[in-house]
Amino acid sequence: MFLLTGPDAEDYVSFENAPVGQLGQLVAVVVETRRSGHCGDIARALATTTPTVGEEITLGAGTLFTDTDADLGVPTAVGLAPDDNRDTDWLDPRALYRCHNQTVRLELRTGSHANRHARDTRPRAA
Q1: What residues pair up with 63 in beta bridges, in sequence order?
Q2: What is the distance between the alpha carbons of residues 67 and 78, in angstroms, rounded to a whole number?
Q3: Per-residue DSSP letters for 44-106?
């Protein structure tokens, strides 16, 4: 996932200092809300919903990784690789739609999550 910032939400947030390889839960803490115009995921019957300020939305648990934008040369995406070997839905789709178009603070919380084993997080073809 990626975050945008700036007056027109045109600038990518850099994850250069992210604790890559750390196990934990990725939590989005809602700072400001707005209505999302995204249609959601029709195939999964998921729609965007508006959270409340202060709400903590757990996006997933696993080993933190980043992905570098080839044009910018800095990591602009962050995710978690789960330790259960699943190939899809590494982050919770419902939680992602709940966060869509909201102002959030991302936190990696360590210690009390279900995934305890590191997983190979190197990019690979789908």
Answers
A1: 23, 81
A2: 6
A3: GTB------TT-EEEEEEEEEEEEE-TTT-SEEEEEEE-SS--SS-SS-HHHHHHHTT-EEEE
Q: Give percent of the chain above pLDDT 70.
A: 87
Please tell me which residue, 10 or 7, carries the higher pLDDT value: 10
- For 49-101, the pLDDT digits (tens) are 889 999 999 999 999 999 999 999 999 999 999 989 899 999 999 999 899 88
Which residue is listed with tokens 């360590």? 110
Q: What are phi and psi of 96, to 5 degrees?
A: -60, -40
Q: Which of 75, 103, 104 is nearest to 14 (CA)?
A: 75
- For the chain, how big is the Rg over CA atoms in Å? 15
Give the contacts of 24 (CB within 8 A, at least 6 positions apart): 61, 64, 80, 108, 109, 110, 111, 113
Q: Is the pLDDT of residue 112 over 80?
A: no
